[in-house]
Amino acid sequence: MPEWEGPERYTVISADCHGGGEIHEYRAYLPARLHEEFDRWVQGYKVPYPDLLGDNGKRNWDSDRRLRDLEDDGVVAEVIYPNTVPPFFPKASLTDQPPAANAGDLQLRWEGLKAHNRWMVDFCAATPGRRAGIVQIMLHDLDAAIEEVKWAAAAGLTGGVLLPGTPPGSGLVPLWEYDHYEPLWRTCEELGVPVNHHTGSAAPPMGDSLIDKVVFLTEVSWWAHRAFTHLIVSGTMDRHPDLQFVFTEQGTAWIPEECRRLDYYWARMGKAVGSQEYEWGHTLVNSMSLKPSEYWARQCHVGASFQRPAEAALRYEVGVDRVMWGSDYPHKEASHPFSREALQLTYNSIDPHEVAQMVGGNAAKLYGFDLDALAPIAAKVGPLVEQVYKPLAIEDIPKGADKCPAFVGLPGAARVKP
Fold this sequence. Notes:
Radius of gyration: 21 Å
Strand order of the largest sheet: 4-5-6-7-8-9
Order of helices and strands: EHHHEHEEHEHEHHEHHHEHHEHHHH
Distance between the termini: 30 Å
Strand content: 5-15%
Shape: globular
Structural class: alpha/beta
């Protein structure tokens, strides 16, 4: 192992966890004028996801249970994306957006998201310094969204804002329309609020058949990746150089290839006089100060959920300072409760200085976690640096771990510990 003068254990911060209130908890966070409306709605509410029921469901809102689970898994702090169903939504808000035309439904759902945001403030306050909650907004009313971002920053939600997608058929203004969204970008930049784009919210509405679900599963990350291009071509990254963007649970391997692809087009549009690319793109490209890969290096981060060994090998192309590991707790595909093994599998034989950045340091810098305050906890529960550096034998992969993509595709991966 390379010379390492740091602590014996890593300080692990999961940049991708999910949580939310039990549906009845949200009532107290709604305006009193909506209590009767909520009571009527909740009577007909049925939990749409089995993992939100019973003991599994409690992992989303039981603060003590959640803390124990994460510490047992070697994780000392977390960034929390939504997971449960907020008031007046039929499904989880991360993947379900209301149509722009239904004004009454929009208003109720907006109040439901605000209730979730206020619940999240209290949930994070229960464990000071260990949770960075992300504020949810809707893009149907940009003025209201901006006010919510300001409120969240003042209320202590340090995870930044969750940027919904603008998929075809949603009726929303596309993200590449800079003039429309400029007040939101300016507000986030002035407040130092990271803009998070999680897979799920950018795909167009789909049906509920088995084929629909397979198509959604195989395309959902592609739809999320598109926001990177849209935020560049809009001029958003060029005009707001201090604004930071996070692309979470979308994989890591796509980033180098996408940057190469866009750089190629930038070169063609900027210099290939007489080409179709130049004719269409030279005005836009020549108005910008950087090429796409340079915007990535300056302003973008990847929430690298259950990162695989092959993805870690690309860390220099992505940027060691851009990668933020995540467990995806408590989802079915999460590395929990096998995160120690997942970290060892992915980061073995890698310089501990780089690993420390990717599993905690980068997230701490972006989201404002205090590493010194977390160090005593990490000294008790964090993964051993020496252990993570050792290659993980196939026979040491725990039974059931291959539910998580971090363990998929390994030679003999089906041979797990009995």
